[in-house]
Here is the input.
Amino acid sequence: MTLLIDSHILMWAAIADPRLRGPVLDAFVDPNNLLLVSAATLWELGLKHGLGKLPLPVSARDFFAREIATRGYRVLDVQRAHAERASELPYVDPAHRDPFDRMLIAQALVEGVPLLTADARFKAYVGLGLRLVG
Here is the structure.
């Protein structure tokens, strides 16, 4: 199965965080799954690193490239169809306005792939057709 991974899953895998467990870990390590990581995740990591909210040993660009090379992720570039879908997403959870999460939701919907996440806030978007693993 092809899965789009949430940004925190990328980070947890990189540091062997024990929060990567249960069904999320099972899906993550399943060799039959193709893991996609969004180019928007690089943007998010770079923004947080630049603001001092995400300490990284190297630049976000180098960190992202290293994770792709060592873990075999496939990058999902942000396309116009993704941006269009993100711009049309309703705010089903008014407290959840994270633009990076909204892009991941849009990408998962447009590409027809489940989103691998441990973030419960994404459940609010299941009614729009979002499929979740985690």
Remarks:
- The mean pLDDT is 95.
